[in-house]
Write a structure and sequence with these properties.
The structure holds two protein chains of two kinds. Chain A has eleven helices and twelve strands. By secondary structure, chain A is α+β, with helices and mostly antiparallel strands. In chain A, a hairpin with a 2-residue loop joins β4 and β5. Chain B starts with a strand and ends with a helix. The chains are: A alpha+beta, B alpha+beta. The structure holds flavin-adenine dinucleotide and FE2/S2 (inorganic) cluster (2 copies).
């Protein structure tokens, strides 16, 4: 293995260095160094940025900005990020959480990317030097985008409107069978007035459950009323098969776990 | 491949080495500096045998590049005993038969050490959570969990 690390103090200089073939950005390294250790020769050079601004968490006026280098552990222990903490805590074990970054999670292929599932449900904006894009656009283009993600902007969810669930076989730490995040607004009588649901492991990257979201509108969260939404949950999914579960199994259990999350 | 200088503190003493760019901290510690207490089990982040404490946080040395540790405070199991006296965690692991082949032990002890540094009186759940990134193929985990709880009790008795 030969890997060379280049260190820059600014994102601008690092973006320029990333144009070279075989060069990749180094976040916490839990995926990219692992790939190098496993003999992935497509990466010959890593680029990192030491700007401390990339590790900042800013919370003000209902808005959260997470710098790309913010770790899962930093989110899990932050007193103003309690709504996001369960999704951050769902990533790996303690050492992985001390290393795994927000930016890296946005690029993590399924079965990884649990935190990105939460960010998708929360309608996050992804920030690069070139500008800001909605997370769905970012996810669709991430295989070809080379620009360094510098931060994500999230509207702070009310604790009662945001739900997150990760299903794994090994507890407390295990790779996802699937993960689900849901942002729900309810009218005072309990009817759903808006729903945004994101799924992990139901494609190679986080996707929205658009048909289920639509079917939930106007429903109360009771077993009878959510049944059409659960039946629609599988529309448009293409779950992954890996040593944890087959695509068939993941598709079978998705409505069960979505139901549990909605009725919780 | 160009060599790069790295400098950090290892268990309280200054270390400086030239390593090839892209060298993992695990490789630098074991093969350059000669601290073989962190073990290389999987090199994939899944076994926890290479766990070390960097600036107070548990990290996997197999996924950390040595060059990113400039100026860091690095702690390994090799630095725990003082003046020939074992650390309470090491004592408890020995007394409780929490180490068999011993391969996972340094990683387990580092994970337990950060736990006890922040949570001197952990619950059983706290211990399970803290050790959840480390795999042991020998003990069945129960003796390890009990050893960490015993070390916590020993610490609080000493403090009293
Ligand atoms: C043992 C183990 C268990 C794991 N468990 C989980 C889990 O339960 N859930 C989960 O979601 N993930 C899990 N992961 C995967 C991984 O740790 C996380 O997804 C993590 O958030 C990745 O972040 P990183 O900073 O380590 O990424 P890196 O490895 O540094 O980077 C990953 C990729 O993203 C690119 N990248 C990173 N940051 C940027 C940026 N700012 N701009 C542009 N490109 C960027 C890199 O170039 C690279 O291609 C696990 C990994 C391991 C090894
Ligand atoms: S060798 Fe680092 S986690 Fe297994
Ligand atoms: S004692 Fe052998 S792996 Fe744990």
């Amino acid at each position: 293995m030969s890997l060379a690390l280049q260190t820059f103090s600014s994102v601008k200089d690092a973006n320029a260095a990333l144009q070279a073939a075989g060069t990749r950005y180094l976040g916490g390294g839990t995926l990219v160094v692992r790939a190098a250790n496993e003999g992935d020769v497509s990466v010959s050079s890593l680029v990192r940025v030491t700007d401390p601004g990339l590790s900042q968490i800013a919370v003000s006026g209902g808005k959260i900005r997470l710098g790309t280098s913010v770790t899962m552990a930093a989110i899990a222990r932050h007193p103003e990020l309690t709504a996001l903490a369960p999704a951050a805590r769902a990533v790996g074990g303690p050492a992985i959480r001390n290393m795994a970054t927000v930016g890296g999670n946005l690029f993590a292929p399924a079965p990884y990317g649990d935190f990105a599932v939460a960010l998708l449900a929360l309608d996050t904006t992804v920030v690069t030097e070139a500008g800001e894009v909605p997370i769905e656009t970012f996810l669709a283009d991430r295989d070809t985008s080379r620009a360094i993600v510098t931060a994500v902007d999230v509207a702070s969810p009310k604790a009662e409107s945001f739900r997150f669930l990760k299903v794994s076989r090994v507890k407390p730490k295990g790779v996802s069978v699937l993960s689900i995040a849901a942002l729900l607004e309810l009218a005072p009588d309990g009817t759903v007035t808006s729903a945004r649901i994101a799924l992990g492991c139901m494609a190679d990257r986080p996707i929205r459950a658009l048909a289920a979201e639509k079917a939930l509108l106007g429903c109360k969260l009771t077993p009878q009323e959510i049944a059409p939404a659960l039946a629609a949950a599988g529309e448009g999914i293409a779950p992954i098969t890996d040593p944890i579960a087959s695509a068939w199994y993941r598709a079978e259990v998705l409505p069960v776990h979505l139901g549990r999350l909605l009725l919780d | 491949m160009a060599k790069v200088p790295v400098q950090f503190t290892l268990n309280g003493s200054e270390k400086a080495e030239f390593v090839e760019s892209g060298t993992t901290l695990l490789h630098a510690l074991r093969d350059k500096i000669g601290d073989t207490s962190p073990k290389g089990g999987c090199h994939q982040g899944t076994c926890g045998a290479c766990s070390v404490i960097i600036d107070g946080e548990l990290r996997l040395s197999c996924l950390t590049l040595a060059e990113t540790c400039g100026g860091a405070d690095i702690r390994t199991t090799a630095g725990l005993a003082e003046g020939g006296v074992l650390h309470p965690l090491q004592r408890a692991f020995l007394d409780g038969f929490a180490t068999q082949c011993g391969f996972c032990t340094p990683g387990m002890i580092m994970a337990a050490k950060v736990l006890l540094d922040h949570t001197p009186n952990p619950s059983r759940e706290d211990v399970v959570e803290a050790l959840s990134g480390s795999i042991c193929r020998c003990t069945g985990y129960e003796p390890i969990i009990q050893a960490v709880l015993a070390a916590a009790r020993a610490n609080s008795q000493n403090a009293a």
